[in-house]
Amino acid sequence: MYKLLGYWFAPVTLTVFFGLNSLMATAQTANEDKNGNGGFIEASFAFAALDSRFVDAPQHFGTLIDIRINYQWNGFFIEDKGLSALGLPGLGYNFYSDPTWTFDVYLSEVHKGIATDYSDTINNEQSGLIGINPRDSDNRLGLRATHYLDETSALRVLFAPISSLGNHDTHLALWYGKTWQYFNANFHTTFSAQFDSSKTLNYYYGVSESEVSDKFTAYKAGSGMTLGAEFGISYPLAKDWVLESSLKLTRLPSSIYNSPIVAPKIETFAHISIVYVLF
Q: What stretches in the chain show pLDDT beneath 50?
């Protein structure tokens, strides 16, 4: 993890330097209008470093290309704000909105698949899971509430009891986010906590009798809390071009610390990205 912190420090220093520079740059910004229609699409190219949670996954680098779509129409919306996101990408319907509160019906992927051909990984981070049966992603439908504390901070809660896996349990997540600006650099920090039942965590991190081997011993996971913290910086380079960088730390639930599927207790992800606003 400390090595990844070092890798992240260099691009962040560069971004801060640009942000404190008195030369002004212009960029297209996409401010969310809670009561209006419209949106934007961005293309992001990132160079990332990851200390993965999975066993036998070395610290490594990789590149990520992402298309982020944000659009809303008559209450319906698609949301993927990337670096500035407060929560998970998804889609939904906003049924109530005022200056300080919004309430949505929201569908999002709360757990990615494991050991599947379509797992979203960097440089085969799950290559050490050979012998583990595939776990499908968990797409959840629920209610999301957002409280805007002021113009720079917000609190968001997701209560998602309906699972694509058929689990009759509840996923509960909480995010707090704050942004601030210094000269031309925009900073953000996000803290999160999510609770999952023993059924969900055992599905992803437990080891069944059919999977037992010399490497993977039988294991049953209990319920637990995942904690996260992220710090990021963005800086407009030119019209429609933005430089982004962030560092995210994820502390895994204590109930899976001894799972043979995972190795570190804290997963670390750092990246620097060039983002182009398509329209």
A: 2-33, 119
pLDDT at 41: 93
- Helix H segments across 60-192? none
Q: What is the DSSP string of 203-218?
A: HHH-B-GGG--SS---
Instruction: Record the pTM.
Output: 0.83
267: three-class secondary structure by DSSP = strand
**Which segments within 52-202 are labelled E, that is strand?**
60-73, 76-79, 90-97, 101-111, 138-148, 153-163, 171-182, 185-196
Query: In whole angstroms, what is the distance from residue 193 CA to residue 201 CA?
Result: 15
Pairwise CA distance, residues 253 & 222, whole Å: 9
Q: Domains in the chain, start-ordered, CATH in brackets?
A: 2-277 (2.40.160.40)
CB crowding 77-107: b at 16 or more within 10 Å, else e: bbbbebbbbbbbbbbbebeeeeeeebebebb
